[in-house]
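Researcher: Let's do a round of design. I'm pasting the structure tokens now; please hold your answer until I've finished.
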């Protein structure tokens, strides 16, 4: 006998709960309620909370990849051009919703809460690895420069996340990212 709902339907329900209620809303019980199945059915597909959150966050990462790939393309770019294009793509309401989750995970990680420390570390490493080949600097400097660019972008995105979009835009202009 098969299950009434698929793994993808459970991920979709988890993603909707995440968008509506934040990390606290993503529980086996809440997903089961949303789909009308026992929470044990959700556990069948995602044995741990870390597995569940990792899968949901993977969907966020794919959405951000799409935004950034459209803005950056595949060729390495000079750091200033990369930041200008990335900032233009990320200073949108759609990206704001994705980064609310990013910063919620980071906040939980900073507070030392499992499984968020491991998830946040994996996300940071992933983004540095993804960005590194897109930075037009000598190969031996790419990892460090990618990390520096991520730190700058995250700082401005954090300003947006706390309701200071105008201040973030002013800072981006001062940094030469906005024209």
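Researcher: That's everything. Go ahead.
Model: Designed sequence:
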């Amino acid at each position: 006998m098969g299950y009434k709902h698929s793994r993808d339907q459970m991920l979709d329900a988890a993603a909707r709960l995440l968008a509506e209620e934040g990390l606290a809303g993503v529980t086996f019980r809440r997903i089961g309620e949303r789909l009308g199945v026992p929470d044990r059915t959700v556990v069948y597909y995602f044995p741990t909370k870390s597995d569940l959150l990792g899968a949901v966050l993977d969907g966020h990462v794919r959405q951000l990849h799409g935004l950034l790939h459209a803005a950056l393309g595949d060729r390495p770019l000079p750091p200033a051009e990369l930041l200008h294009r990335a900032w233009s793509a990320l200073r949108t309401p759609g990206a704001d919703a994705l980064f609310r989750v990013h910063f919620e995970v980071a906040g939980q990680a900073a507070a030392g809460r499992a499984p968020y420390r491991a998830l946040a570390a994996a996300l940071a490493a992933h983004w540095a690895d993804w960005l590194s080949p897109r930075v037009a600097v000598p190969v031996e400097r790419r990892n460090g420069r990618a990390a520096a660019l991520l730190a700058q972008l995250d700082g401005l995105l954090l300003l947006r996340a706390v309701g200071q979009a105008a201040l973030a835009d002013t800072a981006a202009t001062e940094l030469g990212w906005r024209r």
